[in-house]
Automatic annotation (TrEMBL):
PROSITE patterns the record matches: GGDEF, RESPONSE_REGULATORY
GO annotation terms (biological process): cell adhesion involved in single-species biofilm formation; negative regulation of bacterial-type flagellum-dependent cell motility; phosphorelay signal transduction system
Domain GGDEF, chain residue ranges per copy: 185-322
GO CC field: plasma membrane
Upper classification of the organism: Bacteria, Bacillati, Cyanobacteriota, Cyanophyceae, Desertifilales
Organism: Desertifilum tharense IPPAS B-1220
Start and end residues of each Response regulatory domain: 13-129
Pfam families to which the protein is assigned, alphabetical: GGDEF (PF00990), Response_reg (PF00072)
Keyword tRNA processing among record annotations: no
SMART domains (alphabetical): GGDEF, REC
CDD domains: GGDEF (cd01949), REC_OmpR (cd17574)
Listed GO MF terms: diguanylate cyclase activity
Modification sites for 4-aspartylphosphate: 62
Name of protein: Diguanylate cyclase response regulator
Keywords from the UniProt entry: Phosphoprotein
Length: 326
């Protein structure tokens, strides 16, 4: 494919607001000469409407206009979209220190005075556009970094750090929304540990062990698939599932489905003392999130339940309520 057939990025859109027709035309021509798209309006109200609907790359805003002046218009534009950094460049005949301060206080990114020095204006707009593009790239890189920082490299599941954050968030949501006021729906956890996994590694090697953990991760994700559910890798061969707004019965139902799905997957494990395939032990716990109950107790009871599942024969799910009297 030649370059000309590739979709070309559309040129930046410049919004011009000025009540003087001649100035609007001059600005339009100067910007079009640079290859930008231009929309021009004659007053503050129209500037705001165009800003909201078109989301331009840069705004050239006259400070003195009848009706809403440029300073007010600039502050309003700044307040619409959270995190919006669209540069607003004020153009004005006023160059007294107060007006300059007012413009920057209102959120203007730059300021040029009339009569316009055209090469300077061109360079300023170019620089503002470069800043916009750099900022967008930084933001995208940042988001990708945040995504990567919350994932477990081997399984692609949420990692422990992400688990902690989500549990905290769901807990606060449970307390706030008063899940306990209706039928006492609860926040449930399922702590999952692969049975005899050391023997699996010893028999099949670490690489096969890694592949096994990936397969277990897929099973867990397949089973816990409500939008609010979160499956995370808790440690080496331990996984944890957060089931918000889910009762003890619901959590045990999910746990039994996990065991059944592991049975269906039937990953061979010749050395296991439990079965001829890979099995899991699950510790399940549920609590009504309140400001008095605690996440630590919920985790501790899931851990104790897992211990019971291990000691009573593995390949099973055991439930234990948190001991709230502590
Ligand atoms: P149990 O049934 O009581 O849970 O016994 P187990 O052998 O599963 O438990 P143990 O805690 O003795 O051993 C866990 C093993 O998991 C040891 C460790 O080498 C292995 N492991 C932990 N993380 C990873 C990993 O990322 N990849 C692989 N391949 N193995 C891992
Ligand atoms: Mg284990």
């Amino acid at each position: 494919m030649t370059d000309s057939l590739l979709p070309q990025p559309s040129p930046p859109l410049i919004l011009i607001a000025d009540d003087e027709k001649m100035m609007r035309n001059l600005l339009r021509r100067a910007m079009e000469k640079e290859g930008y798209q231009v929309v021009d309006v004659t007053d503050g109200e129209s500037a705001i409407a165009a800003y909201q609907s078109l989301q331009p790359s840069v705004v050239l805003l006259d400070a003195i206009m009848p009706g809403m002046d440029g300073f007010t218009c600039c502050s309003k534009m700044r307040s619409f979209f959270e995190g919006d950094r669209t540069p607003i460049l004020m153009i004005t005949a006023l160059d007294d220190p107060e007006s300059v301060d007012r413009a920057f206080d209102a959120g203007a990114a730059d300021y040029v005075t009339k009569p316009i020095h055209w090469p300077v204006l061109r360079q300023r707009v170019k620089r503002l556009l470069q800043q916009v593009s750099m900022f967008q790239q930084l933001e995208a890189a940042n988001q990708e970094l945040q995504r990567l920082a919350s994932l477990d490299g081997l399984t692609g599941l949420a990692n422990r750090r992400c688990f902690d954050q989500v549990l905290e968030k769901e807990w606060r949501r449970g307390v706030r929304e008063g899940w306990n006021t209706t039928e006492a729906p609860q926040l449930s956890l399922i702590l999952c540990d692969v049975d005899c996994f050391k023997l699996y590694n010893d028999t099949y090697g670490h690489q096969a062990g890694d592949a096994c953990l990936q397969a277990v991760a897929r099973v867990l994700q397949q089973v816990a698939r409500r939008p609010a559910d979160l499956v995370a890798r808790y440690g080496g061969e331990e996984f944890i599932v957060i089931l918000p707004n889910t009762s003890r019965e619901g959590a045990m139902y999910v746990a039994r489905n996990i065991l059944a799905e592991m049975r269906t997957c039937a990953i061979s494990h010749a050395a296991s003392v439990v079965s001829d395939r890979v099995t899991l032990s699950l510790g399940v716990s549920s609590v009504v999130p309140t400001s008095e109950s605690s996440q630590t107790l919920l985790l501790a009871s899931a851990d104790a339940a897992l211990y019971q599942a291990k000691t009573s024969g593995r390949d099973r799910a055991v439930f234990q309520s948190p001991d709230l009297s502590e």
